[in-house]
Amino acid sequence: MESTNAKAYAKIVENGTLAVQEIQNLQTTGYITDHIYVLAHDSDKTERIAHASEAKEVGIKEEGVFDSIANLFRSRGDELRAKMVSLGFTEAEADFYEKQLDLGKVLVIAKKDQP
């Protein structure tokens, strides 16, 4: 599934290999590497894909200090949904995507160039 809202593009892919390919496609179509993010339910998987593709992980810069600290006390699902909301997705969209991540899929997000 693909989604484009006013703030970001998102695509669910089946695995890390396809996530890296999608990230490379986004880079060749003009998205800036610093605006491409990857999320997986397993934080180690997220880190490996981000490293292999030069994509970003959602961090303090995107979430803000409060949400980053709050994530220390959240379940992984709640943490993932908070990260997605911080990138401009609605609660409903974040819930849908998090359920896909529960199934082992990977979410690739690309934010539009910020003014």
* Total of domains: 1
The count of DSSP E runs of length 2 or more, i.e. the number of strands, is: 4
What is the radius of gyration? 13 Å
Structural class: alpha+beta
| Uncertain stretches | none
Strand content: 15-25%
Pfam families: YflT (PF11181)
Organism: Paenibacillus uliginis N3/975
Protein name: Heat induced stress protein YflT
Domain General stress protein 17M-like: 11-104
Secondary structure layout:
Elements: E1 2-4, E2 8-13, H1 16-28, E3 36-40, H2 43-53, H3 60-63, H4 65-70, H5 76-86, H6 91-102, E4 106-111
Antiparallel strand pairs: 1-2, 2-4, 3-4
Helix pairs in contact: 1-2, 5-6
Describe the fold and architecture.
The protein has 115 residues and is α+β, with helices and mostly antiparallel strands. It has one domain (2-111). The protein has 6 helices and 4 strands; from the N terminus they run ββαβαααααβ. It has helices at residues 16-28, 43-53, 60-63, 65-70, 76-86, 91-102; strands spanning 2-4, 8-13, 36-40, 106-111. It has a 4-stranded antiparallel beta sheet with strand order 1-2-4-3, with helices on both faces. Helix 5 crosses helix 6. The longest helix is centred in the N-terminal third of the chain and has 13 residues, at 16-28. The radius of gyration is 13 Å and the shape is globular. Residues 11-104 form the General stress protein 17M-like domain. This is Heat induced stress protein YflT.
